[in-house]
Amino acid sequence: MGISRGAIALCAATAVVxxxxxxxxxxxxxxxxxxxDQAAVAAAxxxxxxxxxxxxxxxxxxxxxxxxxxxxxxxxxxxxxxxAAAQQAEVAARNATADLLxxxxxxxxxxxxxxxxxxxxxxxxxxxxxxxxxxxNNQRCYDDLTSLAQQTRIYFPSGGLSAxxxxxxxxxxxxxxxxxxxxxxxxxxxxxxASGNPVTNQRLSQERAEAVMNRLxxxxxxxxxFTAVGFGDKKPSGLDGPQGAAFYDRRVExxxxxxxxxxxxxxxxxxxxxxxxxxxSACVRDLEQLxxxxxxxxxxxxxxxxxxxxxxxxxxxQRAATCDGAYLRLVGHFSDAVGxxxxxxxxxxxxxxxxxxxxxxxxxxxxxLVGAPSHSIxxxxxxxxxxxxxDFQIISD
Length: 397
What we know:
By secondary structure, the protein is α/β, with parallel strands linked by helices.
């Protein structure tokens, strides 16, 4: 049984379209193709070839259009991605926190809504750094001056004013250093032993302090930061040695104090005058008796005490405020016991903190002075009492 030409043409066309341009035409020969007409096959092939060519061209055109559309879509997507990235970068830039110390503003913002200009912050930073540098320099000055004060003692013969040269060399160094440390005053503290008349001892201790000041000034040193004060025999050294205790009591020591608190009691150094013992009013005498027994004790390394422990200090300060010619001097002390780990710094801080508390209670500023010895001192006659304390002294002009 033969296959018609139409069937052959349809199979060929289907094979070409199904397998694409250039696909080989495969004619399956079944059991009924033995008598196939060769002419019919050739005619069918000739008829199918133009159709296959047209189909192939159409597919090529379609493929080119699809590729062009894909490229256009990729371009649109890339442009959209770039636009989105630019928008995100702009938003991030608006929300980012600028480094106010390095970024210069492009335009001024209204003062009511904008933060401080970076240039203002930079200036504030410089001021802060300068303040820190001054604080560090002040601390260095205090530490250096205090260290020298701790090492410096000048001894005197009984009843004499001839200063020991060994201590004067360190005192000269202290004077040179003070010229580089504004804001600090060095107090020259004269002392005597307990023998003799207390009034004479007070005068002798003052003259010893002034003799040291004059010796230092004779070396060409600027003595504007120094003040000479005599304490008589009220503050024994607590030392003993080959020379006997009295020898170590006849001395001059140095304390580093707050210069601004001494302004009302500054003396005329050029005239060689200082605070001297003289007639005292009744209120001064009463204050001296009250201050002699008043002390504030502190825990190890502490610089503050409870308010109820300051009542005596407040009472003395308020009475000094109403006593003409009387001034309250707070003398901070420290313990040199190994376990306490205290230095003259704690002593001075105790006096300064206490002074601030008394000023807050309404005592006039010029009525309270501050000082601290350069070495640890026990309570006279009561060595068992703590050395971490503040004592009170009344100074009258």
